[in-house]
Amino acid sequence: MAEIESLLREKRVFKPSPEFVRQANWNKKTVREYRKLGEKPERFWARMAREHVSWFTPWKETLRFKWPNAKWFVGGKLNASFNCLDRHLEGPNAWRRNKAAIVFEGEPGDVRVLTYGQLHREVCRFANVLKNLGVRKGDRVAIYMPMIPELAIAMLACARIGAPHSIVFGGFSAEALRDRIHDAGAVAVVTADGGHRRGSTVKLKAAVDEALRAEAGSVRNVVVVRRTGDAVDMVPGRDHWWEDLMREASPVCPPAKLDAEHPLFILYTSGTTGKPKGILHTTGGYLTHVTTTAHAIFDLKDTDTYWCTADIGWITGHSYVIYGILANGATTLMYEGAPTHPGPDRFWDIIERHRVTVFYTAPTAIRTFIRLGEEHVRKHDLSSLRLLGTVGEPINPEAWMWYHRVVGGRRCPIVDTWWQTETGGIMISPIPAAVDTKPGSCTVPFPGIHAAVVDDEGEEVKPPDGGFLVITHPWPGMLRGIWGDPARYRETYWKRFRHKGYYFAGDGAHRDKQGYFWVMGRVDDVMNVSGHRIGTMEVESALVSHPAVAEAAVVGRPDEITGTAIVAFVTPALGFEAEAELVEELRRHVAHEIGPIARPAEIRFTDALPKTRSGKIMRRLLRDIAAGREVVGDTTTLEDLGVLARLREQEEE
Ligand code: WT7
Known about the structure:
- The structure is a single chain.
- About 55% of the residues are buried.
- This protein is an alpha/beta fold.
- Strand 1 (about 60-65) and strand 2 form a beta hairpin.
- Helix 3 (about 30-40) packs across helix 4 (about 40-50) and helix 8 crosses helix 9.
- The chain has two domains: about 10-505, ANL, N-terminal domain (Rossmann fold, 3-Layer(aba) Sandwich); about 530-650, 2-Layer Sandwich (GMP Synthetase, Chain A, domain 3), CATH 3.30.300.30.
- The longest helix has 17 residues, at about 115-130.
- The chain is built from 21 helices and 30 strands.
- Helix content is about 30%, strand content about 25%.
């Protein structure tokens, strides 16, 4: 592919400024030492766990790996909420009590600041609320909220009592919420009346009601934060207002002393089947991973105001809006709304007003801003920024250069961080003062992380060839399983390179002669739309659940802004006409079944789908057609060659 060749010819190299290097948490020397130590990952991570995490009881064994199950810091006891809160209120850091933990800005412009002392009190009170509702250690709590401080309070309260949270992104539909609540067997749901988005409100409580309508299942209580003031139905006995419960709750709640392997949370992510996977993370390893990487990669200092624009409903928000950032005692900014509301400069306005120093966002957002024009950025004083980051998808070198020049004023290092919901924390990324950057490359693995690019056999390819991205040694933040489905865990991540014992990430990548990684994107049936994973099968099952659809095949097509756009090929059911109204109806239907992010950009009707003789849909062909590329490669197994011709004709019309 020409695209890849030009990427690998990228010659520009950027070095951090001497000023940045001088003040950095980790410099070249530290990193050299840690890379050496990291050749024995257990030794490196044990040192990080001692340095960056507070333990009630020390662990006895750093790693116990029985393929494919890992236990880190066996025997150790700790609490994630203690690490994020209490330890900033005592000892040498006691002054942080009155330091901002969360700076919140709502979409309507309301601002709230919670100090570490205040956040601690609120978390303790909500932990008591949960206890009073009968939530016990090990019980799952679903959280479906806008980006408001109560979301952070709810998750840290769960962590405090050892009740794993399962946060469902507020942009998911009632249907998607219902599946996730039931799969996790949640006993309670924490939500809000709604949230602000693009000048209107998203009705979250109504979606919870719809999700629980047919059956409440395991859910006994619903707690509702008043945010928008929209009218909601309250079911007596089941539903409670947050403020009523908080008023009665004591602000004293000792943190539970939890096993290092106690489940901290479940987070659902799309896979290659129609059913999302509940990715399970535990306490000790996860916290060590995210706290260490946040310290080293985001270079967090007490003087920073750090802003990650991800919603807490995604892993990026779990790890780098909340856990990794608060565990470092830094100030984290939370913004509720849309990036371009009320104007195209909302983000830059926020950075200027709050004097944000470290800014972490997605390439898709950067590409949107490029299109909107740099004058909106230039209007604002962004001189507070000192470090930039990206995550979620490959960044094209042009977008990287724009970010560097227009947002970073050519002085801020950029950390392009590769990781996944499953990895818990950042795996491959520059350490800003120690690793030179190349636009489009996430550079090299973090110390103690071992990655490779391999062929089908699991043998390392020679640079700059392409292959599968694998992780060759267990790491502390790794997922501990898929909730309720150990077989799927084994099959999805470990079976492919079982003989080597490698973790299969599902991404294709190249490695250049300097050992830099260039991640190209998913190699499975998962699309990356605006940095969010959506399974083709998920969209297909949403489509076929509509009576007008006989059959559907979904593929991704390259898109300048969102990275990938969803294209659906649909065969209408008997008696339904392939009409424009049906296109709109089906797009709405998918948004209703999954959420607006899964709404296909394009729906094409076809009287048949191209299939192999054994009945497998030939997605490769559909991908070519959707992208407007010439259909290349072997089509001899195609069951009905006429199908292809007809799809092509349609193209030409
Ligand atoms: C997939 C994981 C945890 C980050 C948020 C998304 C892609 C992520 C990069 C990057 C190229 C990237 C991969 C990965 N991805 N970061 N810096 N460069 N690709 O988490 O939803 O679990 O998706 O996002 O394809 O497998 P996720």
